[in-house]
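Lab notebook, bench 4. Continuing the backlog of folding jobs that were queued last week. Each job is logged with the same field layout so the records can be merged later without manual cleanup. Today's entry covers DUF456 domain-containing protein, a 160-residue chain. Filled in by technician R.K.

JOB TYPE: sequence-to-structure
TARGET: DUF456 domain-containing protein
LENGTH: 160
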Amino acid sequence: MVEIVLLVAIGFLLLGVVGSVVPLLPSGLLSLAGVYAYVFFGEGSIHILILLGLTLAGVLAAVLEHFGGPLAAKASGASNQVVAAAAIAAVLLFFVAGPVGIVAGVLGVVFSLEMHKGASIEVALKRALYTGGGILASTVMQLLLTICILLGFLLAVVVF
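JOB STATUS: finished
OUTPUT FIELD FOLLOWS
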C-alpha cells in the first residue's frame, strides 16, 4: 500500500510543475515542499546527494521565477536601478496580475525607465524585449527544472 505522505509529496511535485506555467503558484517552492514533506514525514529516505540536487534545482526554479526577467534586463545593459525596479514590479505584479500582466508590466517598467534615463527608443525597446525574452526563458527553465525534480524524486523513491 502506498503511504499517504508519498502521495502528498507527489501532489506537491505535480503542483510545482503546474506552477511553472501558471501564475500565483510558486513552482520551485511547491516542488521543494513535496521533496521535504517526504524527507521529514515519509517512511523511506533519499540519498543525501540526490536530496542536494533536488534542493538546488528547486531553489534555482524559485530564483528564476522571480528574477529571470530582471536578470535578462541586466544582461541587455540596463542599469542597476532599472533591474531593481523590474524585480520589484515582477514581485508586486505576481500578486495582482496574470501572466500577461506580469510580462507587460515588467516590459513597461524597463522601457519607460530606460526612456526616462535618456536611452533611444531602439535601445529601450531592445532592453525591454530582452527582459521579456528572459521572462519566457525562465518559464521554460522552471518547467524543465520542476519536471526534473519530479522525475528525480520518483526515481529516487519509487524505483530505487
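OBSERVATION: The two ends are 17 Å apart (CA to CA).
SIGNED: R.K.
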